[in-house]
Amino acid sequence: MTTENNEEVTMKDIINEETMVHINSGDVVSGTVLSVNENEVLVNIGYMTDGVIPKEEVSNEKEVVLSDIVKIGDEISVLIMKINNGEGNVLLSKKRADGLKIWDEFQEILDGDKTLEVTVSDIVKGGATAYIEGVRAFIPASQISDAYVENLEDFKGKTLVVKIIELDKENKNIVLSRRVIEKAENEVKRDSLWNQLKKGEKRKGVVTRLAKFGAFVDLGGIDGLIHVSQLSWKRVQEPSEVVSVGDEVEVDVLDFDKEKGRISLGLKGAEGNPWNSITSNYKVGSVVEGTVVKLMDFGAFVQLESGIEGLVHLSEISEERIAKVSDVLKVGEVVKVKIGEINEKDRRISLSIKEAARGNEDFSDYKQEEQGGITLADLLGDKLKNFKFE
Question: Using the 8-state DSSP alphabet, how is residue 368 labeled?
């Protein structure tokens, strides 16, 4: 067969023309890898000329080795960038084709409510970033965990199982969440824990947060509170004096209310309770030294030892009438007090500064007995002989 230009056209040429694909810039087509070198990949896309993928269009990674990504014979998807790259070949891009394909996969994951695994690459303003098949995804700070997060930097480099919560294919935005997964997991844990919880039992947990009034402890999905008064038998001003965030602790379950979601915990325990030996160490009527630790309108609390405090009522501070406790006492002052009463059950001790100031003299043994008792005259003798009674 000949043409008007007397050029011979073979049957092979006719077959090639009939089977050759028609391509346009922007199309995504499939091809077979023919060769791979350091700088480019040659691909047969069924067109009259082969396609070339430059190294920078294979992957977003700069130091990539092309033979680690594609091999001869691989079937890959490529995007047509130019029909003619200036050297007679079609200019192709694998990374751009992958980029278009991955967004369809993202949509399938979102529609199917599936999870995916990512590694946090950077911490940025408002959250963190991660890459999925070269696509940059954002994890807001509020979505990185269902638990309180002290420092986002702790998540850098960590691998997380996440869900897609927002997807904008047109603007190429994808938002991920670890929190939605943890929240569902924690709901199951919480229900189980609430059903197992018992007053008086011991539980292990981890300190998650400190506040002025106490420390929060994660018991395994539910946070309980150790009030500052339950941290130690000694007086505690700040929870940090006893525990730190991240500490593993064994606590007593003092009380809980499932409806309100509250759990009261204690750390001080029965061991080392100074009240266990209170009657052995302190006697009613004895005078001891203590330190003023707190001033109130109605009196002052005096610490006798770590964990043992007693109340000096306003009326027991001085023989003179006083309007304000702070007019007479100050926190940190060491005073002598007389023990008036010990209530072991309620853990209360009544003290008196004015009684201690009178001294330890006790004339109760000198009362005249009904029969043959000793009188004051017997005791004082000649000291009364010149005293006249009217």
Answer: P
3-state DSSP of 266-324: ECCCCCCCHHHHHHHHCCCCCEEEEEEEEEECCEEEEEEECCEEEEEEHHHCCCCCCCC
* Chain Cα centroid distance, residue 167: 28
Q: Mean pLDDT, the chain, as a whole number? A: 83
* pLDDT tens sequence across 198-239: 998 999 999 999 999 999 999 988 899 999 888 887 778 889
E strand intervals along the chain: 28-36, 40-44, 51-54, 75-82, 90-93, 115-124, 127-132, 135-140, 159-168, 173-177, 202-211, 214-218, 223-227, 248-257, 262-266, 287-296, 299-305, 308-313, 334-343, 348-352
- Mapping DSSP onto H, E and C, the string for 156-192 reads CCCEEEEEEEEEECCCCEEEEECHHHHHHHHHHHHHH
Nearest CA to 120 out of 163, 153, 164 is that of 153
Give the phi and the psi of residue 365 in degrees, each rounded to 5.
Answer: -80, -10
Distance, in Å, from the CA atom of 364 to the CA atom of 344, rounded to the nearest integer, reads 26
Q: Which residues pair with 8 in a beta bridge?
A: 2
Which residue(s) pair with 178 in the sheet? none
Q: What is the pTM of this model?
A: 0.45
Residue type, 87: E
| Predicted pLDDT at 220 | 84
Q: Is the Cα dihedral 210, 213, 217, 221 positive or negative?
A: negative
Rounded Cα distance between 92 and 72, Å, is 16
Tokens of 205: 């947990």
At 78 the pLDDT is 92
Closest to 178 in 3D by CA, of 219, 239, 130, 236:
130
User: What count of residues does the chain have?
Assistant: 390
Q: Is the pLDDT of residue 366 over 70?
A: no
Q: Are 91 and 85 in contact (CB under 8 A)?
A: yes
CA distance 255 to 258: 10
Spell 219-241 as b/e; 16+ CB within 10 A means b: bebbbbbbbbebbbbebbeebee
